[in-house]
Amino acid sequence: MRHERILRSLVLLAAFTVLPRPAFAGGPLANCGSAQPFRWASGGANIPFNPDLGNLGPLDNPGAVAQVAAAFGVWGAVPTATASYANAGPLPVDVDITNYAPYLNPAAPDGLSAIVFDDSGEIFDEVFGPGSGILGFAGPEWLDPATCTIVEGVSFLNGPSFAGSPTAAYDVMVHEFGHYTNLAHSVVNGQVIFFGDPTDPADAFASPGPAFDQIETMNPFYGGPGQGTASLHRDDVAALSTLYPEPGFLASTAGIAGTVLASNGAKRLSGVNVIARNVADPYDDAASALSGDRTDDTSQADPLSGTYRLNGLTPGASYVVYVDGILAGGFSTPPIALPGPEEFHDAGESNGVTTPDDPTAYTAVSASAGGVAEGVDVVFNAFKAGDALPVGDDGYVELYPPFPFQVCGQSFDSVFVNANGSLTFGAPSGDFSESVPELLGGLGGTSALLAPPRIAALWDDLNSDDGGTVSFEQTPDSFTVTWDAVPEYGPVGSNTFAITLKRRGNQAVVEYGDVSARDGLAGLACGSSVTSGFENEQDLLRHGHRATVDMRRETAAFEIFTAADGDLAHSRLSFVNFDRGFAEAAERRGGNDDIAHAQPIQLPFDNASVDRFAEISPVGGDVDYYRFRGRGGDIFAVEIVRGSPDTMLGLFDAASGEPLLQDDDGGCCGTGGLSRLLFQVPDGVPSVDLAVAVTSWADYDFDGSEGVTGGRYVLSARKYRGEVLDTGDDTSTEVPLGRPFRFQGQSFSSVFVNSNGNLTFGAGDPDFSESVGELLAGPPRIAPLWDDLDASPGQGLVIAEKGPFDTTVHFVSVPQFFDLSGNYFSVRLGPFGKVDVEYGPTARGDALVGVSEGGGAADPGETDLSEGCRWSVFPAQGTTYEGFVTSASPPEPFDLALERVLFSPSF
């Protein structure tokens, strides 16, 4: 039986916190598949738990264990559910700060379902930070996907947070053990009490409002002892009974089911909270569900996406059903911002445009015992053209243009209007901190915050709550969103601009009026499923203030504006030829899905360009093989340096097919999803044909059939020869040169290779805190990427390669300290004093790049070393440099990836 560990992030979603701090996690907490939640085996009979040996805040161990049993007993006493619980014996140790790791992050199932008592609170302080306010967390821990069963569970309880109150401890336990059983958070009455939220779209049930003892147990917030947590609400009972139903549960109760639809009446929306209230008993007899909570697939391909079903209702009772915005809290089904006002289900539901639809009017529904009232849908009312859109500060709304729009091979029937000056497709963006990594999604690994396709007019921290308006207009052939006199957060200034989507030619036109912002980001990017992450900025207005940007061979075209070059006002940008998709060349030629059809590549190789676009597609049906040749002494670095899939790499003997090496998550510095192979061919081997396979986890056979993620990736494959230097973090190594090198008017027979990305002459310098002052005052220096790099063993390699006329120093997959991305660059000290710097894949971080004679040289000021070219030439004499600072506003990160810079004495 293959066991799969539930993602720890999901377990932490099920945290419980005291007001007013929000939690990060009703329906199921974890789904096995569509309409298949994970369940404890045997219908939840005798769910095991293993209590700690220590004390818990105000409770000694016997008292804590008794409270645990009693809290589980609350759930076990539900007559319409089959769940029951059994103490399977204590843990073998008293878990504390010294030994908790195997229980928080076990390497494999250990036969224990730990209930950890953090008596001192030190575990919670170390994991979440001091004073986090998190009272506990729980959930399934190990799962068996083959049978959709929960194998083991876990819970940690924060003793000091109970402030000497056994009642608080008991309340929290009842809540957490709901998560342990696989129940997610829910919202019925809690928002009304904790946040003053209206009881419904018309506030029809405002008087009298709900009482504390009517708060649902699985609400993500805790108001304190005696506020209803330990007493299950009808919503909690229905959720448990739906997951573990007694045979007569559905036959003896009523149900309501329907779909939540966008204003176009067709798109099903997941992540919307749906509440049903009994008109005669609105607070005790109420139930909730997040639409789409029975599947993890939010696409329209899954028939359960955007649907809901409420069980356990009173037969024959009249219920009102409405959609309710989630104000705070964490949920296993991510809530979305409502694309229209909260509203009731009503007969003749429409979007309120052609047919009036009063969101405060409702039609009550009911069902008999064993019956389900079907088709209880809610269609969100559309926003009206010309009206101010409620995007506020960092908000967004979803709109539906009158025609589908193509972006990078995908067709979209809706667009998200984001407060901070951009349109995105497929997903919203409330992000106010514009940056290149956030635009491209090039953060490495399988981040949940993948970048959507975006058209940015002025991506900046804008706030229409402080002035101005955001609105839209449309015709059959155009759709325009206008930001009119919207200030930056502060409020500061006033910015007017508009983005128009045109049906003809599938163009996007950005027109600017008065723009006071002196920084921001403008451009178009295809999103992280298409971009490589190594695209560099360009001067969008290089041809004047009415520019056409042809994206025929681009996955992104953008510019970062600063106070020095903020030239957007009264200009016009037209983006064209971005509608087509991108295809993998090897797949067009018949595929490279096995060793026999491996794609021959010449090293160095990377597929960061459009011409070398590569992806794992379809998911569970693709693997890519590449073939290259090596010989004895060759050092190879094969790494997925960017990618949306959770990748795996395999190395094979191309002639025999024999597997040699494989790697899952060994990408530089523990990226958590990307892969890397660093290896050397043994001396004496005359020639060997090698093949590397790129697939996604868990395709251990490298045939593509078991991969569970997909999307674009960037493979870097490079070959080196030479001596691997004994470097570390903040070290300096003197390397004799095969031939003296003339630099800054002096001849040197050796060079000091400093692990922090620079070379010095005459003296080493392991300093990690790069600065212009140190560049000017220190020894003669060549700085290809001076930053706090970590060249310790296991992080990356530094290689010195000596030729008859030159010496080259290679930095191979060397990361910044505490960073997740490696850096590849080489410095060749060539004949006649030439310095040739070639960059491979690099992180977009801070750095200082350039050359200097040092010794107190004068500061000539910065030089733009990229100048929009792949080959730029600068003087090797004197001082030439550029600084890259990610903490600037906006950030100015390193932008020389995959480029080349030459410093020549004859410049």
Structure description:
With 907 residues, this protein is mostly beta strands. It has five domains: 4-185, no CATH class; 257-382; 396-576; 585-720, Jelly Rolls (Sandwich), CATH 2.60.120; 724-904. It contains twelve helices and 55 strands. The strands form eleven sheets. Strands 1, 2, 5, 6, 7, 8, 9, 10 and 11 form a nine-stranded mixed beta sheet that branches. Strands 43-48-49-50-51-55-53 form a seven-stranded mixed beta sheet, with no helix packed on it. Helix 3 packs across helix 6. The longest helix is centred in the first third of the chain and has 16 residues, at 61-76. The radius of gyration is 30 Å and the shape is globular. Residues 1-25 and 442-448 have low confidence and may be disordered.
Architecture blueprint of SSEs:
Blueprint: E1 4-5, H1 8-13, E2 15-18, E3 31-33, E4 36-37, E5 39-40, H2 41-44, E6 47-51, H3 61-76, E7 85-87, H4 101-104, E8 114-118, H5 122-128, E9 134-144, E10 149-158, H6 166-180, H7 190-195, E11 221-222, H8 234-243, H9 249-252, E12 254-261, E13 273-278, E14 281-290, E15 307-313, E16 319-324, E17 372-373, E18 378-379, E19 396-399, E20 405-407, E21 410-412, E22 415-418, E23 422-424, H10 436-440, E24 454-459, E25 469-475, E26 478-488, E27 492-502, E28 507-515, E29 520-525, E30 546-550, E31 556-561, E32 572-576, H11 585-588, E33 599-600, E34 605-606, E35 615-616, E36 624-630, E37 635-643, E38 647-653, E39 659-663, E40 676-680, E41 688-696, E42 711-720, E43 723-724, E44 732-743, E45 746-754, E46 758-760, H12 772-777, E47 781-786, E48 797-802, E49 807-815, E50 822-829, E51 835-839, E52 847-852, E53 871-875, E54 880-884, E55 900-904
Parallel strand pairs: 2-11, 5-10, 6-7, 6-8, 8-10, 12-17, 12-18, 30-32, 33-36, 53-55
Antiparallel strand pairs: 1-9, 2-9, 3-4, 9-10, 12-15, 13-14, 13-16, 19-22, 20-21, 22-23, 23-24, 24-29, 25-26, 26-27, 27-28, 28-32, 29-31, 34-42, 35-42, 36-41, 37-40, 37-42, 38-39, 38-41, 43-48, 44-45, 45-46, 46-47, 47-52, 48-49, 49-50, 50-51, 51-55, 52-54
Helix pairs in contact: 3-6
